[in-house]
Amino acid sequence: MSEITVVAISVAKPGHEEQLRAALEGIVGPTRKEQGVLQYDLHRDVQEPRRFVFVERWVSEEALAAHAKSAHIQAYRKAVADWIEHAEIRVASKIA
């Protein structure tokens, strides 16, 4: 089992920036209480304010998979489906 780092990017559709921001902020607290989370930080792109970036660290792929299945993440995905123009998730394993 090795540590997993995730960079998750969500780009809001024009006019939905603040709705998406509020929804993203709403999942920070519950996620930080999950077993296996080491870091879960939300950022907003300085040059493109429609772009939000999570930098996450998890103890394992299993912990990340459990996070994806959590009730608050499932509810979040349903709530924001019409507000997101583009989403990308990159998962990397720590090597050094």
Automatic annotation (TrEMBL):
It comes from the Bacteria. Pfam families: ABM (PF03992). Residues 4-92 form the ABM domain. Keywords: Monooxygenase, Oxidoreductase. InterPro entries: ABM_dom (IPR007138), AI-2_Isomerase_LsrG (IPR050744), Dimeric_a/b-barrel (IPR011008). GO terms for molecular function: monooxygenase activity. This is Quinol monooxygenase YgiN.
